[in-house]
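## Example pair
The file below holds two records. Each record gives the amino-acid sequence first, followed by its structure token line.
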Amino acid sequence: MIGRLTGRLDFRGPDHVLLDVNGVGYVVFCSDRTLAALPPVKSPVALWTELLVREDLLQLFGFLTVQEREWHRLLTSVQGIGARGSLAILGALGAEGVARAIALGDAAAVRAAPGVGPKIAQRVVNELQGKAPAMMLMEADDPLIDAPAAPTAHPAPTEKAAPVRTSSAQSEALSALANLGYAPTDAARAVAEAAGDADDTGGLIRAALRRLAPGE
């Protein structure tokens, strides 16, 4: 199993990159969002990876964070969602957006991904909603990019800083609500709903509590 690759970005294609690792070139397929966030060609970069093994096929898929890779694994466990479908969903929503959509039961958000129909989107929400709390509790990590972000041609790396902080606040808020005795699925939905009201832990907890106990 190849779980992570660190090397030099030699080529960026429409749906993949070529990563040179000690003279060996690995073709790694990525979502549109991940491709946009990568530094310029010839820069050092690292990606978490998932290896797809079939009788007639070996393909590597790359992700900037562990959360993104774990959501990929969960998404591809849903019947009708292959690796490319998972990348389409992650490219449209991002790992944090997927967590929010599934916690809220928002099949319409999942359906916004190219090639994902209403039945498949609803199936994703139905099958993964119970797993959203555990995913939201995963510790936020920084993207595995070792080079400075590209200046104006690739604005996405700058935009990723805030979601990382927000993800950490959401996981801390979810943990706090679980300690208060709220059911994981209820807490996850409340935190996801409150994400637009605050991006710090204290604010998220207060906003989520207003949704969980509106009369208090």
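Second record, same layout:
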Amino acid sequence: MTPQDNRDLFAIADLAREFGISTRAIRFYEAKGLLAPERVGATRVFRRRDRARLILILRGKRLGFSLRDISDYLSLYDANRTQQVSLLIGKVDERLASLETQLEDLQTTISELKEIKKLADDRLDKAG
């Protein structure tokens, strides 16, 4: 557990620094409705819940989920856990299928490139 985990309130700069992102990125997620900090005058005040949501947003982006997928998941944040888990399973299955297809395509491309390189190397050996 980090010292951040025990705090109740966070400034936007604190979260940006902790997660290695810009304050602009956090404001972008806010504009998209993924985060809803409170305001004290012109200052954004983030609570633990906002920090937890930011962790989920960043994890979702790192895993290749769209903002729409992340938004759908977060919309169930306070809802029925079964619905949340079911949605998550569906999105994970879709993402895995997409990545497996990409992996197959990459493996095919790598094999083809290796074959082309081998043919080119053989021609150079015969020519030289």
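Notes on the second record: Residues 81-127 form the longest helix (47 residues). The CA atoms of residues 76 and 84 lie 6 Å apart.
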